[in-house]
Amino acid sequence: MIDQVRQWVVDARRIAVLTGAGMSAESGVPTFRDAQTGLWARFDPQQLATEEAFRANPALVWDWYAMRRAMIAEVAPNVGHVALAAFAQRHPGRLTLITQNVDGLHQRAGSPGVLALHGNIMEDRWLDVPRTCCGTQAPLPGRPPKCGVCGNLRRPAVVWFCEMLPEQAFEEAERAARECELMLVVGTSGVVYPAAGLARMARGRVAILNPEPTELDDAADAVLSGTAATLLPQLLENWP
Ligand code: NAD
Ligand code: APR
User: Fold this and answer.
1) Residue 137: predicted pLDDT
2) Is the pLDDT of residue 42 over 80?
3) 131 CA to middle of ligand 2, Å?
């Protein structure tokens, strides 16, 4: 089956790739829903990954993201991230990378134009105003930092539960899905929408790369049972 999918990669002029937390598992970043090691097995997402939770206890949520940032700063992109970046650099404009991940590892591996549907944990923004707050002075240090004039808080620049996705990124992701000849769906359980829905609107063939069954397997033309760091180099490297 992998040879079949590799041939689809060779033949496809436009490829969309949708990645999830499993893409970074071999870099040492925990996934969300793994029963033993997943983040949501140890923390209650409703207590941490919502605006309501942040407003109720800003220091707790800020500290949790600071802990994740520190962990992510210590890890490196794996060979799966590198294979995607190298392919995109060798074939400019042919591959559109859409990720649900907030760890920035695709960007650090050198992938261009990453559509980060859920934001980037390494960045933060104002809670109550979208861009600038009361001027140019830096926020006062704190957990979280805050505006010295109006007290507005900084928050992680990630998409929380019940929040809208970044409109332009999502529109570009939908367009890539609708125009591709092939979509590779890598390391996602496919349980969270609207990201997972992109795999159901793909114009072309859909190949899933995952060591476990997913909620999207029924929409796939091929399911490759394996990890991102094993399968992506096999599919994308050693090209003429
Ligand atoms: P959800 O089921 O509430 O829907 C996701 C959001 O996308 C909702 O605001 C919904 O209105 C919007 N949406 C739904 N369909 C859409 C479409 N077709 N076009 C544009 N927007 C659409 O999802 P959720 O489980 O509450 O989570 C919200 C988002 O935040 C999800 O994408 C989730 O993955 C993300 N999230 C990120 C983290 C993180 O740490 N990065 C944690 C939790 C959730
Ligand atoms: N290679 C490929 N896939 C892997 C690997 C690996 N090495 N290790 C685990 N996986 C798979 C698991 O089998 C699972 O299907 O990665 C998937 C991880 O699923 P989730 O933990 O649900 O993560 P994800 O699908 O990215 O979650 C979607 O939900 O909480 C929100 O915003 C959060 O972006 C996240 C979204």
Assistant:
1) 77
2) no
3) 31
